[in-house]
Write a structure and sequence with these properties.
- The protein is mostly helical and 128 residues long.
- The protein has a domain of 73 residues.
- It is 59% helix and 0% strand.
- The protein is globular.
Length: 128
């Protein structure tokens, strides 16, 4: 039986919110002097159903390891600005969207959660 690690799950939730928020702020800001609305009116485009969360088979080992590395970096540097968090995620080899997708999948897929727990343990600094 696979048990979820509540600490790791909470880390994903916090990191997910931070990176998702940081990624969306870049798109929400319009250039100075642009008076166009930031979002189209609700009636302008039909709403499509939300995409399903990818399965564990959707992520390569390299992407999951990059996620573990990015998460470890974000944990070690908790006072980063949202933009700095996105930079750290991108430096690990993931886009903010990929990072958020993996985090969301880990919350729902015990196999992905277990893989990430293993990679996170490998990222942890050795204790003397």
């Amino acid at each position: 039986m696979i048990r979820k690690n509540p600490t790791l799950a909470a880390t994903f939730a916090v990191a997910l919110g931070s990176v998702a928020f940081a990624g969306s702020t870049a798109f929400a800001q319009a250039p100075a002097g642009d008076s166009a609305p930031a979002t189209p009116p609700p009636s302008a485009a039909p709403q499509s159903p939300a995409p399903e969360t990818p399965s564990s088979a959707s992520f390569s080992e390299a992407k999951l390891r990059a996620f573990a590395k990015a998460t470890a970096t974000l944990q070690q540097q908790p006072n980063l600005s949202p933009q700095e968090q996105v930079q750290k995620v991108e430096q690990s080899g993931l886009s903010a969207e990929e990072y958020n997708s993996i985090a969301a999948t880990a919350q729902k897929d015990p196999t992905v959660m277990q893989q990430l727990q293993q990679y996170m343990q490998q990222q942890a600094p050795a204790q003397p």
